[in-house]
């Protein structure tokens, strides 16, 4: 839970950088537009996670999975985002697998611990 | 014995390098601070736990959303290369799937327009002031009438 109200804001510089990636290089983004984009992004996160929570609760799950997020996105009419995100999820899983493999190799004694991590990994809590 | 020890030490440094590489490539992919995204998600009512993969997906989704909103707004203004608040507000108005942002990024109006709206509202009781100003926007009027 956020302790201060500012904790719900996203850094404006990061938001601006992301927005400028798709805009022509000489575009000027006004200060007001930057804060508006940051605000919109915060609300978007709440909007999607609220939808994903509803989906997860309806299935008696306590942890929100990536699948719940995908379904939430399609429910709120943002199907266009799903395809690039699925690619990202695959990359994320493979880098995690890679990391796991390297830790396994470097510390062969802890093999049993790694196996346990394998089982819980998908429902990893934060 | 000593040779095998040397071997393991070199491989471990190589692995460390590869881990560092993958880390840097991932931080290039995502610009938004993941911990902040998690804080925002955690403030959703009834939320319990957020899986790490889903956190990454939401973070990236937010980035794509920002880019979509910025690009839509940019396409709406044609002459000058200057992205302003009103462009974003108009993009929100014209995209049905951004309806949830209408109260976050409302259209700016002048005081004269505001007084006109207030005057209209008092003369036509029960009418939503948005309806009177934006009769062309059918989707907004249909939803507001549902709410009423």
Automatic annotation (TrEMBL), chain A:
Gene3D superfamilies per the UniProt record, alphabetical: Histone, subunit A
Domain of life according to the entry: Eukaryota
Biased composition (Basic and acidic residues): 93-104
Keyword GTP-binding: no
Pfam family, one: CBFD_NFYB_HMF
Compartments where found: Nucleus
Keyword rRNA-binding in record: no
GO MF annotation list: chromatin DNA binding; protein heterodimerization activity
Ranges where the record places region Disordered: 93-126
Keywords: Nucleus
GO cellular component, one term: epsilon DNA polymerase complex
GO BP annotations, alphabetical order: DNA damage response; heterochromatin formation; leading strand elongation
Transcription factor CBF/NF-Y/archaeal histone domain sequence ranges: 9-73
Biased composition (Acidic residues): 114-126
Name of the protein: DNA polymerase epsilon subunit 3
Organism, scientific name: Cinara cedri
UniProtKB/TrEMBL annotation, chain B:
Subcellular location: Nucleus
CDD domains for this protein: HFD_CHRAC1-like (cd22924)
One of the record's GO cellular component terms: CHRAC
The keyword Transferase appears for this protein: yes
Keywords recorded for this protein, A-Z: Acetylation, Coiled coil, DNA-binding, Nucleotidyltransferase, Nucleus, Phosphoprotein, Transferase
GO molecular function, one term: protein heterodimerization activity
Subunit structure: Heterodimer with POLE3; binds to DNA. Component of the CHRAC ISWI chromatin remodeling complex at least composed of SMARCA5/SNF2H, BAZ1A/ACF1, CHRAC1 and POLE3; the complex preferentially binds DNA through the CHRAC1-POLE3 heterodimer and possesses ATP-dependent nucleosome-remodeling activity. Within the complex, the heterodimer with POLE3 interacts with SMARCA5/SNF2H; the interaction is direct and enhances nucleosome sliding activity by the SMARCA5/SNF2H and BAZ1A/ACF1 interaction. Within the complex, the heterodimer with POLE3 interacts with BAZ1A/ACF1; the interactions are direct.
Function: Forms a complex with DNA polymerase epsilon subunit POLE3 and binds naked DNA, which is then incorporated into chromatin, aided by the nucleosome remodeling activity of ISWI/SNF2H and ACF1. Does not enhance nucleosome sliding activity of the ACF-5 ISWI chromatin remodeling complex.
Protein name: Chromatin accessibility complex protein 1
Species assigned in the record: Cinara cedri
């Amino acid at each position: 839970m956020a302790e201060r109200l500012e904790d719900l804001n996203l850094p404006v510089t990061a938001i601006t950088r992301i927005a400028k990636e798709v805009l022509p290089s000489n575009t000027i983004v006004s200060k007001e537009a930057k804060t508006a984009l940051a605000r919109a992004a915060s609300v978007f996160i709440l909007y999607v996670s609220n939808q994903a929570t509803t989906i997860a609760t309806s299935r008696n799950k306590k942890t929100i999975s990536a699948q719940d997020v995908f379904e939430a996105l399609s429910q709120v009419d943002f199907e266009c985002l799903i395809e690039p995100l699925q690619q990202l999820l695959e990359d994320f899983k493979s880098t995690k697998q890679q990391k796991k493999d390297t830790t396994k190799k470097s510390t062969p004694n802890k093999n049993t611990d790694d196996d346990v991590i394998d089982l819980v990994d998908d429902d990893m809590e934060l | 014995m000593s040779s095998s020890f040397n071997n393991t030490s070199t491989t471990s440094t190589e692995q460390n390098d590869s881990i560092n590489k993958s880390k840097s490539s991932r931080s290039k992919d995502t610009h938004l601070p993941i911990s902040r995204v998690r804080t925002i998600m955690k403030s959703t009512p009834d939320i319990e736990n957020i899986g790490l993969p889903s956190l990454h997906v939401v973070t990236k989704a937010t980035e794509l959303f920002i880019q979509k909103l910025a690009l839509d707004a940019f396409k709406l203004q044609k002459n000058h290369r200057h992205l302003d608040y009103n462009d974003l507000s108009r993009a929100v108005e014209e995209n049905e799937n951004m309806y949830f942002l209408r109260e976050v990024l409302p259209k700016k109006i002048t005081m004269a327009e505001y007084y006109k709206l207030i005057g209209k509202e008092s003369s036509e009781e029960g009418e939503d002031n948005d309806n009177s100003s934006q009769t062309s926007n059918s989707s907004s009027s249909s939803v507001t009438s549902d709410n009423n």
